[in-house]
Amino acid sequence: MKTNKIIKITNLILLFFAFSCEEFVSIDVPDTQLSGEQVFNDVRTAESVLTHVYTKLHNSVVVTGDSGGITVLLGNYADELTCYNANLPELVFNENQLLESTTTIHNFWRDTYHLIYVLNTVIEGVGNSTTIVEADRDRLIGEALFVRAYLHFYLNQLFGEVPYVKSTDYRLNTTISKESSSTIYSFIEQDLISAESLLVDTYTGDYRVRPNRSAVVAMQARLYLYHGEWELARQKATAVIENTGLYQWVEDLNSVFLRNSTGTIWQLMSSPEGKNTLEAKSFVFTLVPPPNRALAQDFITQFETGDLRAIDWVKSVTNGMETYYHPFKYKLNVDTSTSMEYPIQFRLEEMYLIRAEAYAELGFFDLSKMDINKIRNRAGLGTTAAQTKNELITAILKERKFEFFCELGHRFFDLKRRGLLDTTLSNVKPGWNSTDVLFPLPENELLLNSNLLPQNPGY
Amino acid sequence: MKKKLINQRSTRLLYGCLLAFTSFCVTSYASSPLELQQTQQPITGTVTDAQGVVPGVTVLVKDKASGTLTDENGKFSIVATANDVLVFSYMGYKTVEITVANQTAIYLQLEEDTTQLKEVVLNAGYYSVKDRERTGSISRITAKDIETQPVTNVLATMQGRMAGVSITQTSGVPGSGFDIQIRGRNSLRADGNNPLYIVDGMPLGTESLGNSSFLSGLILPGSGVNSLSILNPADIESIEVLKDADATAIYGSRGANGVVLITTKKAKSGKTTLILNSFSGVGSISRRLDLMNTEQYLNMRRQAFANDGITTYPASAHDINGNWDENRYTDWQKELIGNTSLHRQVDASLSVGNEFTNLLLKVTNYNETSVFHGDFEYGKTAFQFSGNHQSSNKKLNMGLSIQYVIDKNDLPGTDLTLDAINLAPNAPALYDAEGNLNWENSTFVNPLRKIKEEYLAKSNFFNAGGTISYALLPNLELKTMAGFSSTRLNETKISPSTIYNPAFGLDSSVSILLQNEGYQQSWSLEPQMHWKKDFGKSALSVLVGSTFQERNFGSRAIEAMGFTSNSLIYNMAAAANIAIYNNDNSIYRYNAVFGRVNYNLHEKYIINLTGRRDGSSRFGPGKQFANFGAIGAAWLFGKERLIRERLSVVSFGKLRASYGSTGSDQIGNYQFLDTFSSTGIPYQGSIGLEPTRLFNPDFSWEINKKFETAIDLGLWNDRIFITTAYFRNRSSNQLVGIPLPGTTGFTSILSNFPAEVENSGIELEWHSKNIETINFSWSSSFNVTFPKNELISFPDLERSTYANQYVVGEPLNIRLVYHYTGMNPETGFYEFEDYNNDGFIRPGDDRKKHIDLTPSYFGGLQNSLRYKKWHFDFLFQFTKQLAPNFNTYKSMPGLAVNQSVDVMTGTQPYSAGFNSQATSAYTFYRTSDAAFTDASFIRLKNIALSYAFQTRNGWGCKVYMQGQNVLTFTNYKGLDPENYSGSKIPPLRVFTLGTQLTF
């Protein structure tokens, strides 16, 4: 009787505790996520990782038209824009009062390196994948290498010596050192050469929202221009210009920035369908005075008389007493039933002006003038009067100023590479210092990785 | 139960009223009053105990207002009728009731009550323990403390009342959270310091359900809505906090940060009671910054430009370039965050039952409007059910508690505090003549756009916890605790096109609705076996059990854009585009076996062993299981003959100590996996994927070793009760998100921290009954904690990413800052110590000054006073600490931002931002020791005044006045010394008036 009871109890107790097991606490990958291995076993998911980078570039990182991108920030930093809203983070850019603790700078740095990390996961993941076919593999890795070079190019231009990150290993990247500008240049060059060999000229999908081989070549042209490799710059620019099967000159200034423009070499997609550009959202206003930012009044007066770009790409807003102007290259700050405009990264006009500059430097003045006039004529201006090399360079820089104003910081980079920042900006920008040529390295990054020291001069 | 007799003078029954007040006016459902008019007769007597006469014994006529005390000879005299019952009570003795009948002289010997303290039984989670015999460290508050406070968050009720428990209110926004640290900061992860919360046996998932990055981040600090913020404080009977290893090791991995046990109200046996309660009141922000007026402000601005050598004011300087009226003045703190909030609560509870079954039903409705400009409201409706049953043979016991809370929080999208302290005092009016938002010709970024971005959170919380136990054998009880809880949140935030300046020419095609739905659902099952054996001189009790727990989380954030009209903004069908930003599901599983062995010899020597083996799905394969355990011992030395005979002033004495280990798995789910998540944004038609984190498959359990020793001392029959405890917790192998430089692509990686951290401290608790007479009593409780935190070792600190954050031998909570040395006599600018004498001030080289933000001490002092039917309670909370002052969130004086009047003296010359030397000096200043000031404060946290009486027909009635955050004494240079934030409204000062009726 009693033993029976004890057996019963023992059984009950065993029942209670028999369940503890490892299986209970082993869980699978959540059904809303994918493991890294799964992602790079399927070309569609691998593609989604890469295209996410383009979305980020469109929406918030480096080349975005939003207020955290170089279009707005460098427009303020140089002489293109005036900031009318003291609450905006770009005010310190407008006043050239950056500090190593400026949050915008830190975000800029982190967001850019985050995208570089994502690109490296694509390069490594697709490279190790056994299931993605070669054509897809080349395309994905080619694009990733290209964008990696593109981002490091801007980092180098803005911050000077920076780390060139080629791996996803956080142990290496935690203590990574800065590279000299010449090393960065050669890394960019190598990445671009690899990308060029891996990519083809056919665009993936609709429009030109994925970089193709010509986009890489266009980037090479820009890289060589910035480094004074005139012959290489000429070759690369010419290669794109002569690719007339893909790229045709757009005569109508109002069509240049449409999403189906034939002069576009690479654009970013505004998504979902119906969205237009953040550039338009940043710049367009309808009542004065401007709520956030507008073209600097000085800038507007410098357009040559008769320059159609001052009419088609600039919009004036007035209340009868005061008139303000905003960039109007991208015109739609609202959604439309189908998207009309996509932000452009490379367009044919840049190739002409790169070649013009290369010709001038190489001594082919007539050829140079032809390319300059191509731009001027479309803007309703007569042929250029420049004759000598120096006159031609000045003419080209002026043409670049009015062709590429408020576009991806072209103006600032042109002044910088030609050493004209101090002479140009100190007159119009009371806060300008020679050391403002480089942004400060973010203070928190220096604290986390002492290999990034020293800080850039002036900060 | 003796039947209650009520005569016509019953309204003056003091004792009844006191009883009614202290125990929620629980009175019996009286039968119709008997009209007994008996003759009064004088009664005299003497009260003695084993040693002799006892003076000061309270003698009361039960249920009547008359009473007396024994004199120095133990004698008393009183008038009563034959039917009356006399009640004799004295601290430390058993209360005796004697029916008068025909006696005229009563001689009574009181018996010492050794069980009096013993009978305070504490909930230790899996078992309960008599306060007198516990070996661990447990603090508690009860409904009595909770109901004096007009607050909506459970943690608020504990502030200042428990030693070793530091609670700070992060914002005065209704529904916002509190930070809690039990015995210091154990983890470096900001979200890794939460204790384990258990409501009626069911672990409460306190992870946020909200989406703070898209929706709630700008208004609700921290992680937004979670189950804890929804729980209704009025439903709580008691809160116990387990602090040391002895008490927490049985919770194993979940006990490292302490355990908070919340017990909801249960039916009182055998009585039918209806309680109706209602209060209403007003609130306002408790502190403000003293800001410049228009004249002072404009002088500062003009001077700043003059100093910078700028004569033409820039286009963006609307405050002085002529765009704005320079004679206007608005007190923006009053305008934006200075409204009076209205607070109102109605609750009713009904409790019924008999010997075997008891039921309680309670409903609470609470509303609170906001202090922000505009109409916003927080509302909470809570239902509570509790039932328990015992079988007639007393072998089977069942209990079930259910809470259901509906919570609705309507708030502005952004906290306006920062605008209130930053806006120029001559900024234009908020509305134009037509009542539309005024943008002052595009020169004014109207702060009210932020309140048009309305945030609305609707949540439901359901929690059910039940227990079934069966006494299989006289010594053996089988018990199962089971629970289920579910929390759902639906939050929305709108951005109608009207938040934009009309100058952008935008219409409803840019209007946005953000919606996030979050849920959490969990179940828990804990079968246990309790065995007890009394050997006469000693007793042994053994407990073994196991835990199975699963928790599912999910969230989905949707963005709907482009509406046909702003009036349809809550209708997703009217949106042109809908994008799903995020859709996450995750699962957490937890499994454990645990046990406790308690041996008690002579009720003097007690040893308590607890242990747990834990498995958690939050760790990778091979790392899931870990063992934790503790030993606790107590010696009730007060019972030793030597003490009893030689030191009779010591009525109770106990030495206790404990040592053990606990862990923490508060790291979020799936951290060991390399995963990619959807971004919700399409590119070329397919949705993007991004890496979720840097992953580390190899991290494992962190270990927290806790040591405590304490002495509990009762003096003069426990009229004074003192507890002093010393604790020392060491954590190693901590799981932290190690900060990483941006070049790694992420900001941190979860890994085991190579350092050892020690939290130690001394806690002191004092309870005393200072005065106790029939008409007047006064009791006090005091607690104070002296915490200490130290980074003991950190191998290779210099080469780690923590090199500029921590110093070995210093607390974790330090800031490395510049040392401000004064102003340069020539330039007038701030100067700082150049530690390495290289001529430059650099963050890595010269931020060498340590500022310790750990409080030196904190605590609370509570006093309860009673005079006849009046009760008055008040609580002071105090903290001695350093904190960042307004300099850390204010920009440089001279910029277009209003400033504290303090900056008008002793600061460097104003600059409008064009003098880079001034700007950089000011930037250093903000991160120097000058930006930290004493933020010690004494706060009259709570006052409660009540008057309780009984009506003729025996109904209890109480009217009361309560106040929260009534007064703050501090020299702090900033808004609030508790949350020391510049962007969140300070805690509200609330006064309420209420009535409680008991039938």
Average pLDDT of chain B: 85
Reading off the top of the CATH hierarchy, the class of one domain in chain B is best stated as: Mainly Beta
Look up the CATH topology of chain A.
Serine Threonine Protein Phosphatase 5, Tetratricopeptide repeat
The CATH topology name of one domain in chain B reads Ferric Hydroxamate Uptake Protein, Chain A, domain 1
Q: Could you name the ranges of chain B where pLDDT drops below 50 across 5 or more consecutive residues?
A: 1-37
- SSE string of chain A, helices as H and strands as E: HHEHHHEHHHHHHHEHEHHEEEHHHHHH
Counting helices, strands and paired strands, the structural category of chain A is mainly alpha
**Individual helix count of chain B:** 12
What does the largest sheet of chain B look like?
Answer: 22 strands, antiparallel, barrel
Q: What is the first-to-last residue Cα distance of chain B?
A: 18 Å
Task: Compute the number of structural domains of chain A.
Answer: 1
Radius of gyration of chain B: 31 Å
Q: Kindly provide the radius of gyration of chain A, computed on alpha-carbon positions and rounded to a whole number of angstroms.
A: 26 Å
- Secondary structure: number of strands of chain A: 7
* Count of strand segments of chain B: 48
Subcellular location (chain A): Cell outer membrane
InterPro entries (chain A): SusD-like_N (IPR033985), SusD_RagB_dom (IPR012944), TPR-like_helical_dom_sf (IPR011990)
Family (chain A): Belongs to the SusD family.
Protein name (chain A): Membrane protein
Keywords:
heterodimer, A: 459 residues, mainly alpha, Serine Threonine Protein Phosphatase 5, Tetratricopeptide repeat, two-stranded antiparallel ribbon, two-stranded antiparallel sheet, globular, B: 999 residues, mainly beta, Immunoglobulin-like, Ferric Hydroxamate Uptake Protein, Chain A, domain 1, five-stranded mixed sheet, 12 helices
